[in-house]
């Protein structure tokens, strides 16, 4: 019924971020200058963060990171949810179920529970918090919300996703992985309103699937360190996409009686420049929608699970129509797919 996004207040220019990373990591890394071009090669110009630049240059522990996550995530979710409900002509009390995906922080009670009184949702609202899906959470979370909407026909389901990737920035560990993470990741949130019997003629979720490749647990994820989450991502991700994603996509589409050439466009998670180049090769000759993924990457960076919803919002705003394949990859290592009729 609607899609909305939200960005935090602090806008980070990529050149300024490089300067800050050089000041923090450079004195302790002999090969920092060799890694520095990654800031330009990501394809990112600006990003947004829940905290100002100087906050990230100081050591932070779990209590500070968790407090920043809770405060920042709730503010962004309230903005995205409020906009999505307004666009659907609904109020918080009209929502029957909430699905909330996030993997970049912890909160108990969970984020959607904390939003109940804050936004005026009903006390009997059904809640499903999702943790651990990583970048795949935007697609898989939307799919779970669609499945709940189908099971609760006539009821309204609100899907929420928020990722505050910047809070995982750990200045105490001067490693290539941390440098790349500081060049790539950003913060953002999104919301969508779904109803199984909606007759407004909006986009429709037709099908979804996921595929987890054996022996790939170490490709992407978190390490739990004393001072926060330590990011894990392999340099082999683009290679895995190029070699293994195509057959998974073909099987999914074949199950829907479709081929790649039947797609009108793509809604891809913009994980990075190398990832998008790999996706271009996998989905060839389908290209519509990839420009939107590049645009989100350029202006917002990699917001993990939230990113794909930003791409979907751009496709809808541009008036795109027809069957679109949503895709993202996350820890597992897992491919998340959804077929959406725009």
Automatic annotation (TrEMBL):
Domain Chalcone/stilbene synthase C-terminal as annotated: residue spans: 205-314
Keyword match Kinase: no
Keyword Hydrolase: no
Keywords, ordered alphabetically: Acyltransferase, Transferase
Ranges in coiled-coil conformation: none
Location of the Chalcone/stilbene synthase N-terminal domain: 69-197
Domain of life: Bacteria
Pfam families: Chal_sti_synt_C, Chal_sti_synt_N
PANTHER family (UniProt xref): 1,3,6,8-TETRAHYDROXYNAPHTHALENE SYNTHASE (PTHR11877:SF99), HYDROXYMETHYLGLUTARYL-COA SYNTHASE (PTHR11877)
UniProt similarity note: Belongs to the thiolase-like superfamily. Chalcone/stilbene synthases family.
Entry protein name: Alkylresorcinol/alkylpyrone synthase
């Amino acid at each position: 019924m609607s899609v909305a996004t939200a960005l935090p207040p602090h806008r980070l220019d990529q050149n300024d971020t490089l300067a800050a990373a050089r000041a923090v990591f450079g004195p302790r890394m002999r090969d920092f200058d060799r890694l520095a071009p990654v800031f330009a090669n990501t394809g990112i110009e600006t990003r947004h963060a829940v905290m100002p630049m100087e906050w990230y240059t100081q050591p932070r522990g779990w209590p500070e990171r968790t407090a920043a996550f809770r405060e920042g995530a709730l503010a962004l979710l309230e903005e995205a949810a409020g906009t999505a409900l307004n666009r659907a002509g609904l109020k918080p009390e009209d929502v029957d179920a909430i699905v909330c995906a996030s993997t970049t922080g912890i909160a108990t009670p969970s984020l959607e529970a904390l939003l109940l009184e804050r936004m005026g949702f009903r006390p009997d609202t059904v809640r499903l918090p999702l943790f651990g899906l990583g970048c795949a959470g935007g697609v898989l979370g939307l799919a779970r919300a669609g499945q709940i909407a189908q099971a609760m026909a006539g009821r309204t389901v609100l899907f929420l996703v928020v990722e505050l990737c910047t809070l995982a920035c750990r200045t105490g560990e001067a490693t290539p992985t941390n440098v790349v993470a500081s060049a790539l990741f950003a913060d953002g949130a999104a919301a969508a309103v779904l109803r199984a019997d909606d007759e407004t003629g909006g986009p429709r979720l037709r099908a979804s699937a996921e595929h987890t490749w054996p022996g790939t647990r170490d490709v992407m994820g978190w390490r739990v360190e004393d001072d926060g989450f330590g990011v894990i991502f392999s340099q082999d991700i683009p290679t895995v996409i190029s070699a293994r994603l195509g057959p998974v996509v073909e099987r999914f589409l074949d199950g829907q009686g479709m081929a790649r050439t039947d797609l009108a466009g793509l809604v891809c998670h913009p994980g990075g420049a190398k990832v998008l180049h790999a996706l271009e090769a996998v989905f060839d000759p389908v290209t519509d929608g990839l420009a939107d993924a590049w645009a989100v990457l350029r202006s917002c960076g990699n917001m993990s699970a939230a990113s794909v919803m930003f791409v979907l919002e751009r496709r809808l705003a541009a008036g795109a129509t027809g069957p679109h394949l949503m895709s993202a990859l996350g820890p597992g290592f897992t491919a998340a797919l959804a077929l959406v009729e725009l």
